[in-house]
Each structure stands twice: as C-alpha cells, then as structure tokens.
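Hey, quick one: can you model this chain's 3D structure?
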Amino acid sequence: MRRWFAHGAGPVLVALLCGPFGGPAHAGEADLDGPRAARDFVAVGADAVSSVTASSAIADCPPQSVLDGKVGVPWISRSDDREGASLTLRFGHVHWLDHVDVVVGHGRDNVSFHAFGRPTSLELVFSDGRRERYPMKDTRRAQRITFMSLAVTDSLTLILHDVDGPDGAGVALSEVTAYEPRDVFEVDPAFRARISEFMMLFDDPARHAEGVALIDRFGRHATPYLLRRVMEPDGKNRRLALSLILRNDRVAARRAVGQLLASDAVDDVLLALGQLSEAPDLDEHGAVARLVREDPRLLVRRAAFFALAARPPSAGWRELLETVAADPAPGFRAVALREMERIEAPWAERALLRTIEQGPSEDARLALELLVASPLRDFGPVERTLRGLPVARLATLLPVIGATVRPETTALLVELLASETDHVLYRPLHDACDAHGRAGLGALLARIEARGEVSLTVTDFLLARAPAAAELAGPVLARVVTVPEHDDVVQTLIEVVGRAHASGARDAVVRAFTDPERPVRVRDAALLCLGQLAPTAYTEALVRGQVHAERTAFRSSAYRAAIAMRLTDVVPEVRRHLGTLPPRLWDPLAVEVVAELGGADDLAFLIDRYIDANRVSQVVILQGAYRSGSTPGVRLLIDAAAGRDRTLRRYAERHLAEAKPK
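Sure thing. Here's the predicted structure for all 662 residues.
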C-alpha cells in the first residue's frame, strides 16, 4: 500500500491504493526494468520546466545541462561551492511527483567521473518546504529516489551533501529527471459500458496489453470507438488505435488514412504517414507524393518522403528525389542526397557531382563526403570535378578531403600542394594535409623524390612540420643525395632534418657538404645543418677546417655551426682574425663566436673595441656582456644605457634589468 499526501493549502488527502502505485517508498540505484518501470509514470520533460538555477556553475557546464539527456554534458559547480551546492527546477505548474532519477558526477567516462566531486547524499526540498534526504551510491548509473509520498509541488531543489572527489574541482550532476503518475485522477471504469471499460484498459499502462486484446476481440465492431480515438487530436494511443482498425477493418482504415492525409493538422498527417508502411495495399502513393512536392510544412514533407522511401521505388522516384534535392530546407535536401548515394545509380552520381559544382556550400560538402566515403567508388570523376572548381569553392571543400584519408584523396592533396596554389587555398590545404598525418607527409616526400623538384610552397610546408617530417625525410635524403640533379630537393631535406635535429641523417648531410659538385647554397645548408646535429669528431673537424680556412664560401655557416657545437678551441683563431680588421668591418658572427665561446679576456678584447665596432657587432657585444654577468660587462651596459644611440640604449636597458654583477 502507498499513502498519497497532497501538500500545501487544504486538507491532507490519504488514499490507500494497490496496483502500480502501491508498495513501500524506497531510494537507491534505479531498477529501470522492475515493476516500477517507466510505463507507470511520465517524465516531467524539459518543456515543462520554466527555469533551472544553481548556486554556481562553471563555464560550458550550466545548470540546464541536467535536462538535455546527455550524461556527458553535466552541470558542475565552482570549486569553492561544493558542500551544500544546490540546483533548483521550477515547473510551469504544479506536478504530482513520485520519484526522480539522478545521475551524479560527470557521466562522460570514468576519468571525467572521478575528476569532479560527487554527492554521497542528496537533500530534496519541495515548494511547500518539505525536505527529504537520501543516500547516493558513487556510480555513473542512474539512481532512482522514490519519495515517501507523492509530492505536490511547483519546484524541486536538490542540495548536495557529503561530497566525494578531488578538493580542487566542483561537484557535478549529469542528469535529473522527475516523474509523475501517468493518470492521477483516473475515472472508475465501473460506470462505463463494457466497450468503454476496454477502451480504458487500452489507455491504462498497467493493463494495456489486456485492453488491446479485449478490443481486438471485438473486431470491426470496435471501429467506431477506435475511430473516435484516432480522430481526437489529443487522443491517447492514436497510432495503436489506427493499427487495430487496419488489422480488422480495411475499408474503414482506407477512409481514415485518406482523411488524415487531407487534414490541416500536422499530427493527423504524420499519424497516417506512419501507418502506410504497415498497410502496403493502401495505395496512397499519389497523395503522399503531392505532400512531398507541395506541402509547405517541412515536417510533413520529410515524413512523406520517408514513407515513400520505405516502399519499393516507383517510376517517379528519380523525379521525386530531384525535387527534394532542390527543397528550400537544407536538412531535407540532405535526405535526398543521402538517398541518391545509397542508390548508386549513374544518374544519382551525376546529380551529386552537379551539387558539388553548383549546389549550396553545405550541400556540396555533404555530396563530396558521400562520394569519397566509399573506397570502392571510382575517385576519378570526383577528382576531375574538384580540379575544375573555382578556387574559393574548392577551399570550402578541402576540409572534407582532409577528413577522408584514402590513397586517392591523399594524392590529390599532395598534387594541389605541390602546384602553384592560390594563396586562398594555403590554410585549408595545409589543414587538410595535416589531417592525413604521416600518410600525407610520406606521399609528399615520395612525389618530390620522384619528380626531383620541390616548390617553395612544399618547402615551407615541410619546414613548418620538421619534427614530424624528419623521420621520413632522412631515408629520402640518403637516396637523393646520390643524384646530382636533385639539388633543390637535397637542400630542402637538409634543412628539414637540421631543424628537427635528426642526427640519423648525418651521413647524408656530410656527403652533401663534401661533394664539390654541389652548388654552394646546398653545401652551405649542409654545413649549417651539421651544427644542428649531435657532433662527432669528424663533423667538428669539418667545421674547424672552415673556420680556420683563409678563403671559404662557408665562413658564416661555419661560425654558426661552431657556436652550436660549442667549439671553444676556435676562439683564438677567430679573435686573431678580428684583430687584423678595423672594428667597423667586423663580421657580427665572428664577434658572436668570441663573445659566446670565449672567456673573460676575450670579452675584454671586445669591450675595448666596442666604441669603434659597427652597430650589429655592438649589439652582439652587449649580449655577451649581459651573459657574462661580470663587472666590466655591467659597466659597458651602464655606459650604453646612458649613450646617445637609441637602439643600443634600448638593448642595454633591457639587459640591465636582469644583469647581476659577479
């Protein structure tokens, strides 16, 4: 038995009932398949909730999330609002609440669940001030709280207590769904005629199957009662009532379906369309096709289309699909495009290709996605269509190609990237190639190896992705370095492996530098690359040789490599070379070698000649003075900060802000 209490103004109503609402009150993990199943109750849906408020909420996790039906999108309070945090649902009118299903915590996955707080008890507060408190399990499953008695209320507040979980995170609730009995004020069936009694059983969730069986036994004699129900705009079980008529009275069913299809009420039309698949002998194709072509209501057009799609294709199916493909509603056009792809007829493929060329952008993207999704479909027509598109339109479609990784789409992206591409395509093309990851890089490297040429666009693309490209570029460099004609490719690959510090390609880089037939620019890039790789005795000797050489085309790269390798033994020679020149003619890179790798005496040598050096060399000397932290260095910075040259003064002031004399 169950006591029902009407709370609020007025007397207390006590009723002792048996059946679906009987039994003791309970709380805990929901048994959603048990005797108190959803058929006995109806959810108070989000449309019945006028507002949802909370004591606090973090960004992107508002209190309204508890009503969206998605456990992966919860409400989460602020981290300083855990114990006692509250959530309030306010309804548009009074409801007779029986129980509430709650999903505590962040329900997306176990990691998210344990990353936020979870209440181990909930306090429920109703609009009349009544309070009830229930323990909660620490689980991602829905938990049902059945109230001690029906709560007549226009609001429901949940207060979260005894929060478990990390201290630095807020407390979360994923879903809250309140339920009330389907029919609280049920009329006593004893006052109705027998058929009326069966119609009531027909509507009673607990005895529904029995009611259907009894009405079905009346056969066509129950048609007037069922038709009355079907024609009631707000009647319960209209669909089932129409199904029973279809089973027992085909003539009446045909009249009813025709009348519903001609109705101005959307629900009537949808009810008829939903039954057509159950009655293949009801020939309403003409009426349904007219709805697809002419009805102004999108919902009706969609339902009519699906009703026809569920039947074998007719002679006018192609024309109907083309009509839907030109519908004003984007979502409805998408339905037709998907159906065309499913048919796999030549005319359907041509229609999809025309959509790529001429259709609205969202339709073009969908058509392209449908055509490239299947690896069994010939990619040739799609590629030819894409290559013939204006640049601006192609840019909008490249994300689809990027999202579809197959050899044909990768090859197309590589060809577009390697060609003289319009700047409008740079960003979408780079993003699409990135989406293909290692496959895209491998195909690009294979192309430049086979062609023996590389564009500036490809060079910039590879350098920007050097860490990922270097692993694949090393083996390619080892092969192309043996081909005399591939100078541009060799230089690009050397720069890639150097930027990524890929020491595994060292032998190929050494071979490129030591090959006298290579252009100076390639050898210069190779020497600079050696400074970026892990040094060996041999590569250090190569750099030293270029530093000490009387005449060399690679001195600047040699200086840079020496600094990167920390070759301190080259400082005396570089200093000696500087001493032979007027300071105004100094090479700033040579100055940097002395300042970066030399000792206190070497820095003093530079400081003594600072005033006569060129400006770039002066900046380098100031940087060396700052790094040294020595008293002479700080004095130089102070003097420069007080000097007349604005550029040097700015450098000195910045360095003085952090300089610490030794």
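One thing worth noting: Residues 1-38, 183-192 have pLDDT under 50 and may be disordered.
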